[in-house]
Amino acid sequence: MGHGGRSTHQLTHTQLRVVGPGHSVTATVGQDVVLPCHLSPQRDARTLEVKWIRDRISETVHHYHNGEDLYREQMGAYAGRTELARDGLSAGSLDLRITGLRPSDDGQYVCTPHALPPATGADPHLSLGSYEAGGVRVLCRSAGWYPLPQLLWRDTRGQHLPSVSQTHSQDQEGLFEIEGAVIVTGSVEGPLSCVVRNSRLQQDQGEVSLATALVLTQEKSGSCSSTCGHG
């Protein structure tokens, strides 16, 4: 039984390689076998789409996508006999187990991972937080991004302001939500902007501005302008 590895998609800024054993995998009819494959450099593969195919006939042996095994395209000869090892996915392992080997299983197998395409999320949403450290905490949140975006704060001169906190989460579709906070004090003059940027496309999304003077004069229970929700 032969085994090969191939990468057909740029997964990050630098090209990842798909690495196989470099030699044929030998097994006995009736036994189970694991075809090894891993990503180099190592990265979490749980949100990738992974296909194992028979090389010469280009038919699907196993199809995995974002945490689920998909069987619609699978060759009937492999039904109920394949499994992508879950315990190694977070470390970039794409090993395929085939059970109950048959003489017809002999051949070349190709492991092909695909990353999620870049996704530009929603316009950033600004909201007011609590009063602290002599100023007001302002929050910026945006969801629906892939890969994990950058969140930046800018003053009226375009200078970057440091975030006091930044968190992110990933949904079941593999898309990211990011939230950042900055403390606005009287030393910050003019409009304050939050920019969320797709690090792969280098595209800024929906620069949202909030007047600093408005933030500093709001009471905790007061209303906010149409561009800002109260936190």
TrEMBL record:
Main location (coarse class): membrane
Keywords (A to Z) from UniProt: Disulfide bond, Immunoglobulin domain, Membrane, Transmembrane, Transmembrane helix
InterPro entries recorded: BTN3A2-like_Ig-C, Ig-like_dom, Ig-like_dom_sf, Ig-like_fold, Ig_sub, Ig_V-set, IgSF_BTN/MOG
Gene3D superfamilies assigned: Immunoglobulins
Signal peptide positions on this chain: none
A GO molecular-function descriptor: signaling receptor binding
Start and end residues of each Ig-like domain: 14-112, 113-209
Localization: Membrane
Cellular-component GO terms for this entry: external side of plasma membrane
Single Gene Ontology BP annotation: T cell receptor signaling pathway
Keyword flag Disulfide bond: yes
UniProt superkingdom: Eukaryota
PANTHER family linked: BG-LIKE ANTIGEN 1-RELATED, BUTYROPHILIN
Protein name: Ig-like domain-containing protein
Organism annotation: Anas platyrhynchos platyrhynchos (Northern mallard)
